Amino acid sequence: MDRQPNIQINERYKQQQSIPNDMKPKLGSGARFKSVMSKAAEGYEKKGMSHEKAEQIGAAIAAKVGRAKYGAKKFSKLSAMGKK
Q1: Sequence-ordered list of residues with C-beta below 8 angstroms from that of 36, at least 6 positions apart, any chain
Q2: Is residue 12 pLDDT above 80, yes or no?
Q3: Average of pLDDT values for 60-64?
Q4: Domain boundaries, the chain
């Protein structure tokens, strides 16, 4: 008996059940904020700005984007969750 079809079905099932690598971190963990902040800060550092100043600007940009996307009320709740 040939069991090749069973192996193919099992592998397809495993692929469907696996978690994709491009999933975003959980909302409220602070990881998304840090990601946006670090990308923005990196851009300003490449322009010649100091690390501390670039991080401040990156945090401000991430906060502005977050407030625009989620609204001030929800963003403040997410901020509180991220600080815990």
Answers
A1: 58, 61, 62, 65, 66
A2: no
A3: 92
A4: 29-84
